[in-house]
Write a structure and sequence with these properties.
Cathepsin D, subunit A, domain 1, globular, 2 domains, 226 residues, alpha+beta, SH3 type barrels
């Protein structure tokens, strides 16, 4: 009888451990990272399929920081821990805070102002970009240099002309396959490529903003997927 009681206690202990282990696996969010290219002190990382161009001290939206470049390897900082990773190496980070699922109807993006402008990191067609929220812009808009970096064949788009701060400029209307800001990912977003627009920033205009709900809590801007 005593042996049976001991075995039952042992079995309950094992079940508790297994349950805790399963719970840990379910709550930990692994992020796959590939060191794709190194150009001097600039590094291209692919994080869960999204490419990010980082310089020393830069972070991805997931909080992965580039802290050092050493020949054909890099040092990344995640959750206050630094580790060395080789070029072409694939890394899996657990317990990294990630954006909400693209299929989640409650997905949001929270944007704090920077110098009185709402600027945030995001991606277009899986390439990292910096967005400037512009409620006066009809479309998501960018310069030709940014479009070329993103691999957009804008010369195949519909050509037109638009008035800008510098005068009348040629524009090319295209459709972007995928635009992601925070946890919000939208497909088939209309955009304009503006000739002579030299900023590295992409204007986050109404072709994206009209498809989300925008609210403000004090200075914080919150975008929510409709």
């Amino acid at each position: 009888m005593n042996k049976l009681r001991i075995n039952n206690k042992f079995l309950k202990c094992i079940i508790s451990i297994l349950f805790a282990y399963v719970l840990l696996i379910q709550t930990a969010q692994a992020v796959e990272v590939v060191v794709m290219a190194i150009f001097g002190e600039t590094v291209i990382l692919k994080v869960d399929g999204v490419k990010h161009k980082l310089k020393l001290g830069d972070k991805t939206p997931e909080g992965i920081m580039l802290t050092q470049v050493d020949g054909d390897s890099v040092e990344l900082k995640v959750n206050n821990k630094k580790s060395q990773y080789p070029l072409g190496g694939q890394v899996s980070f657990g317990n990294v805070s990630t954006n909400e699922s693209k299929n989640n109807k409650n997905a949001v993006a929270k944007i704090w102002p920077r110098n009185d402008m709402y600027i945030t990191q995001g991606s277009i067609n899986n390439f990292s970009v910096e967005f400037l929220v512009d409620t006066g812009a009809t479309w998501v808009a960018m310069g030709e240099a940014v479009a070329r970096r993103l691999g957009i064949n804008y010369h195949g788009g519909k050509k037109g002309y638009a008035g800008t701060a510098s005068g009348v400029a040629p524009i090319y209307k295209v459709t972007l396959n995928k635009v992601k800001v925070g946890g919000i990912e939208l497909r088939h977003v209309r955009a304009a490529i503006i000739g002579g627009y030299r900023s590295h920033q992409v204007l986050l205009g109404n072709s994206f903003l009209k498809r989300v709900e925008m609210t403000r809590t004090k200075r914080l801007m919150i975008l929510k997927k409709k």
